[in-house]
Amino acid sequence: MACGLKPITYAKNSLELRFIYATRSERIAIILTHGEGTEPMAVTVDIETAITQLQAELESYPEDGDPAEWAWLHVRLGDAYRKRLYGEQSTNLEMALRSYLAALQVYAADTYPSAWAKIHMRLGIVYFNRILGDESENIEAAIYAYEAALTVYRRDTTPAEWATTHYNLGSAYLSRVIGDRVVNLRTASLSYESALEVFTAEMYPSEYARVREYLGLVARYLDQLQGEDAVDKAVYAYHSAVMASNPMAMSGVWMKPTY
């Protein structure tokens, strides 16, 4: 599981899955925000029912059926597993991953760009929260998936999806293990800033507040790293000065200066 931030999914409907930020030592928390009158247990039962029905439809799907419909059934099954509360989270995420990858056998970027982007958005979330596999490789896969979705999403045509993808991409770079830490943090900051072009305080107050909060977190991390870098440079300069005046100083043998 990746350390640092975890992505959220944005949805306009009353049932919304949000992944809450967690450290490496914490399990990912999932909060279902329900519409008025919706009980959490009812939602859980609905998801289990959906999984059973979707699996049955896919098992009996005719070979000469519509490939796009078959693929969308896999997307829906992946969504159900991703939101599932029963069972092991690691298994549910693997099942969601398998379903989304199956859907991509049909939904290509050139023929179904919208569906292709939506699946890559979901793949990014699954890879980033994935428990199995190598952590750094999962984060890299999440980054690739988010960046792929951004080749389709545009601020002027799909602003909410575009901003959410930038938000999640920022979270992935914030948690990235590979590469220069400062570069990753600066890339995360740029992604969060892009998200704020859509997530304004007036239109999306909760999203705006969340992005601003983690922009502040990035800034603090950068300050810490730059402070550590300044200390390292000072220590190096001190050692260089000592070595210049007394070459044996760092070897453990101090040459007594002559005056």
Write the layout of secondary structure elements.
Layout: E1 16-19, E2 30-33, H1 40-59, H2 67-83, H3 89-103, H4 113-129, H5 135-149, H6 159-174, H7 181-196, H8 205-245
Antiparallel strand pairs: 1-2
Give structural attributes.
8 helices, globular, disordered C terminus, 259 residues, mainly alpha, disordered N terminus
General description of the model:
The chain has a two-stranded antiparallel sheet with strand order 1-2. The model is unreliable at 1-41, 233-243 and 245-259 (pLDDT under 50). 61% of the residues lie in helices and 3% in strands. The protein has 259 residues and is mostly helical. The protein has eight helices and two strands.
Strand content: under 5%
Please state the CA-atom Rg, rounded to the nearest Å: 24 Å
Query: How is the biggest beta sheet arranged?
Result: 2 strands, antiparallel
- As a percent range, the share of helical residues equals 55-70%
Gross morphology is globular
**How many strand units?**
2
- Rounded average pLDDT: 79
Distance between the termini: 61 Å
> What is the number of helices?
8
Structural class: mainly alpha
H/E series, N to C? EEHHHHHHHH
Q: Name the poorly predicted regions.
A: 1-41, 233-243, 245-259
Biggest sheet: strands side by side, in what order? 1-2
